[in-house]
Design a protein that fits this description.
Number of helices: 5
Structural class: alpha/beta
CATH architecture of the largest domain: 2-Layer Sandwich
Shape: globular
Strand content: 25-35%
CATH class of the largest domain: Alpha Beta
CATH topology of the largest domain: Double Stranded RNA Binding Domain
Largest sheet: 6 strands, mixed
Number of strands: 10
């Protein structure tokens, strides 16, 4: 297993270098949790198993957070043109770490043909063995319904109200402040999220 990571704990920065050239690079962030050496080692060991799929210039961004008895891990791996992301919550951070690696591995096998663009395979973040392996997609993505609508300019708060009135979990609208298409969505704990494009 490759060693060394960048570790950020609140405002403290711990930086290390990988021992080998074949290692993914890790950035581990702790929110309301101290990233102990044991926890750091567990993350590197578990997420490090994904090195058989990725090239050494791949970054894995890991966020560990604790809210009461909810121990959550979020892993984001940017690859050329796409983002691979998974999160898991349990009452034990080590269990969450174990579960999230399995989720990402399933995603990689299940959606390989969707993740990897054949034209960009030569310059992708994926190893040749993964690109050439024979994984059968377990299910095909099918769009069964297309709905067209005329988005009205409104403020994000008004879009949340409209979403609630419609009984939906998300709502697409034109933001009156930016004149751009945005999406509001429901989050856990009776809160809302806003998705807006980067310009």
């Amino acid at each position: 297993m490759c060693g060394g990571s960048q570790i950020l704990i609140l405002m403290k920065h711990y930086t290390g270098r990988s021992k080998g050239d074949d290692c993914m690079k890790f950035t581990i962030v702790g929110k309301n949790i101290d990233v102990t050496p044991g926890l750091k080692a567990a993350v590197e060991e578990k997420i490090g198993k994904l090195e058989k799929y990725f090239t050494s210039d791949t970054d894995a961004n890991v966020t560990l957070s604790v809210d009461k008895d909810r121990h959550k891990i979020e892993v984001t791996i940017p690859v050329k043109g796409k983002i691979i992301r998974a999160e898991q919550v349990s009452n034990d951070m080590y269990v969450s770490v174990d579960l999230v690696e399995e989720v990402i591995e399933r995603q990689l096998k299940k959606y390989r043909s969707k993740i990897v663009d054949k034209q960009q395979a030569e310059v992708s973040n994926f190893k040749k063995e993964y690109l050439e392996a024979d994984y059968t997609d377990e299910e095909t993505i099918r769009i069964e319904r297309i709905k067209k609508f005329d988005p009205k300019p409104m403020y994000a708060e008004d879009a949340c109200v409209q979403m609630e009135l419609l009984g939906h979990n998300f709502f697409v609208f034109v933001n009156a402040e930016t004149d751009m298409v945005n999406v509001v969505y429901k989050r856990k704990g009776n809160t809302y999220g806003l998705i807006e494009p980067e310009v």
